Amino acid sequence: MDATSLDTRNAKRDEHLRGSDFFDTENHPTFTFAVNGAAVPQGGTAEIVGQLTVRGAGSPQTVTAHVTASSGDAISLAMEFTVDREQFGMVWNQLGMIRGLTTVTATLTFARAVV
After folding, report:
1. Tell me: the pLDDT tens digits for 19-60?
2. Spatial separation of the C-alpha atoms in residues 91 and 104, rounded to whole Å
3. Which end of the chain has fewer surrounding CB within 10 Å, N or C?
């Protein structure tokens, strides 16, 4: 994902989040979630195992996702999971106002690659 696309609807906050205290988008313009495995049992949920990489630091993640759409060649998933931002070098915390744990919300669509 393009880390510079961050939009909290507050330009000043977005500028700070893109800076070196947080995402450091000048040096790390993207963050990724590489899927290593997935199980989609009957019932509309999926268990996704992967590696989240932010600011060049990777952290293994296992998340539960809800299937929002599917076809023969694609599946869309909505997920929410918690990460410790300090694992990714985001340690700025003026006056102790920000907790280390952050909730990530994502909607992803996976399509079968044509080889």
Report:
1. 988 889 999 999 898 989 988 777 778 888 999 999 999 999
2. 17
3. C
